[in-house]
Write a structure and sequence with these properties.
Elements lengths: L7 H8 L21 E12 L2 E12 L3 E5 L6 H8 L7 E6 L3 E2 L5 H7 L1 E4 L11 H10 L14 H13 L15 H13 L5 E5 L7 H14 L4 E5 L3 H8 L4 E6 L2 E7 H5 L2 H8 L2
Parallel strand pairs: 3-8, 3-9, 6-7, 7-8
Antiparallel strand pairs: 1-2, 1-4, 4-5, 9-10
Helix pairs in contact: 4-6, 6-7, 7-8
This protein binds adenosine-5'-diphosphate and magnesium ion.
Length: about 280
């Protein structure tokens, strides 16, 4: 997996299960990234009892990009992910996957199937099941790929599981019940489970929360490795983690009060007076 380079056609093929047909019901080419954009939000507003959690939010993510989103608590970051994944319906605005897929017309399971994977703050793994089985189950969830849990895995699927285990660095834990893993290991396992679905876009909401410094850097390594395999949007507070993901050239979006406050390299946004006042300086 680590030797994948970003290439629009290859992403289509992976996102839509060219090889082992893992999961997706979408037809090849359904996500049109011909203009280079995987996700596009325009003027999105969400109100809760008159309070605007999102206020004319507009942003776009390039296909293959790893975008970091930062911003104070209550800025609307999680609400934005709720809108993208179909959990919350916006009052107004556009939300598109690629050029043509209007996400506001789809429900949560449809959006998951078309290739948007979401990692919530708390890890949700099958605690009683071994690590290996967690990955196996994740591959099967959407389409009943095998008739029963006991069905023998074909070699391609086994290879995928092994590849993912190596990527999330849990090769040595394959037979352990997931419940015995450390917090950081569980988080990596859950990311592995999402990867088994071959998402085109992965949304991660504060994935480093509650991790030790070592675990945080291991997670940064993993996400950096995934670059080009899928597009990613990462919401995070830990600035060292953001620095490890964004590097010098990566784009960082700062949200505040439901819209974009600043956008640019980490260095640029860190020195933006508005950002210092509303977020970093506090
Ligand atoms: P962030 O993830 O940036 O911390 P959230 O998106 O969770 O921010 O929240 C943005 C604002 O919207 C907060 O003020 C929060 O209290 C409010 N909010 C979020 N979800 C709901 C909801 N379901 N009902 C009412 N208010 C909500
Ligand atoms: Mg949040």
């Amino acid at each position: 997996m680590s030797d994948y380079v970003y290439d629009a056609d290859a992403i289509d093929e992976r996102a839509f299960g060219g090889d082992a047909g893992m999961g997706h019901v979408a037809t090849p080419g359904e996500i049109d990234i011909s203009h280079g954009t995987i996700l596009y939000l325009d003027d999105v507003t969400v109100s809760f009892d008159g309070f605007r959690a999102l206020n004319k939010l507009s942003l776009a993510i390039d296909a293959g990009e790893l975008r970091c989103i930062i911003g104070p608590n209550g800025a609307g970051k999680t609400t934005m992910m709720d809108v993208i994944t179909g959990k919350t319906e916006p009052d107004s605005g556009k939300v598109f996957l690629g050029q043509t897929i209007d996400l506001t017309r789809m429900n949560e399971p449809e959006i998951a199937r078309i290739g948007i994977g979401r990692k919530f703050q708390k890890p949700t793994v099958f605690e009683q099941h071994p690590v290996w089985e967690n990955l196996e189950l994740a591959m099967k969830t959407d389409k009943g790929w095998f008739a029963s849990l006991r069905a023998r895995l074909d070699r391609a699927a086994q290879a995928r599981i092994e590849e993912t285990l190596a990527l999330i660095r849990l090769e040595g834990e394959a037979r352990r019940p997931a419940g015995e893993l450390s917090h950081g290991q569980k988080q990596r396992l859950e990311i592995g489970m999402l990867l088994m679905q071959q998402p085109a876009l992965l949304l991660l909401d504060e994935p480093a929360a509650g991790m030790t410094d070592d675990e945080t850097m291991q997670l940064a390594d993993l996400l950096n490795h995934l670059r080009g395999t899928c597009s990613m949007m990462v919401v995070e507070h830990d600035m060292e983690f953001v620095a490890a993901l964004a590097g010098e050239a990566g784009m960082v979006t700062v949200m505040a009060e439901g819209s974009v406050l600043a956008h640019g390299t980490l260095d640029t946004v860190k020195n933006d007076p508005n950002v210092i006042e509303s977020y970093l300086g506090r």
